[in-house]
Amino acid sequence: MSATDPLMNAPQPAPVVSSISERPGLLSLRGVDKVFNGDVVALKDLNLDVRQGDFMSLLGPSGCGKSTALRIISDLLHPTRGSVEWAGGHSQNDLGVVFQEPTLMPWATVAKNVYLPFRLQGKSYASVKDEILEALKLVGLEKFQNAYPRELSGGMKMRVSIARAMVTRPRLILMDEPFAALDEITRFKLNNDLLELKAKINCTVIFVTHSVFESVFLSDRIVVMAARPGRVLREVQVDAPYPRDEVFRTSAEYAAHCRAASDALHEAMGG
What we know:
The chain has two domains: about 25-90 and about 170-270, Rossmann fold (3-Layer(aba) Sandwich), CATH 3.40.50; about 105-170, no CATH class. It contains nine helices and nine strands. The chain has helices at about 65-75, 110-115, 115-120, 125-140, 155-165, 185-200, 210-220, 245-250, 250-270, and strands at about 25-35, 40-50, 55-60, 80-85, 95-100, 170-175, 205-210, 220-225, 230-235. The chain has a six-stranded mixed sheet with strand order 5-6-7-3-8-9, with helices on both faces. A three-stranded antiparallel sheet has the order 2-1-4, covered by helices on one side. By secondary structure, the chain is of the alpha/beta class. The longest helix is centred in the C-terminal third of the chain and has 18 residues, at about 185-200.
């Protein structure tokens, strides 16, 4: 940020409350390395503790391994070295994933797209129809259950993707820049809705973003990653209470946290 930026004179964030550190552990990454093609080091000695109820954002420059870390947690990639350890073990039902693109099946209705996780578990549509309709209600799309993806706006498609990720009520939802391609108004609305959904299903979220402002609005923990190789540089904790709204977005407290996160990101970019 420039010297004339209004965030320069923002007050410092208040001390972090202890409740975040007192949450039970959910999973840990221990000494994780990821090397591609024998010599491209995407992650190096990544250590991360995720606690139950966290809304954690991974913030950092392009190429710092944020998405790679998410794929390792979701078991889509295996670490070259190190481990991912779940407290008490985990099952397929414990995890939901939302990618940057909605990745909907164009030939299937909205309801049948949300049904996909249950189908992969071998459950019939009839046996889980109530859960599917409840998930669509939570994202405001119950009236569009018989529509097809081509009939939906970009924001509505992303809502379907979120409903699909949360329909099994997972303990952890991974979100890889889900709102990056949306306009600002839609993005703000989905940020608000996401916090409401998290509170309703009582899950943990790990959210990848390039946006300082989005990370501060959503998160209580912001993990800033440095590139080449990807690793944790610093953590910024946002102790503002939930629910958060437009009053928080325009507050001095929000500006102060944005400044702290921006400073850490600037350091991660070698500034």
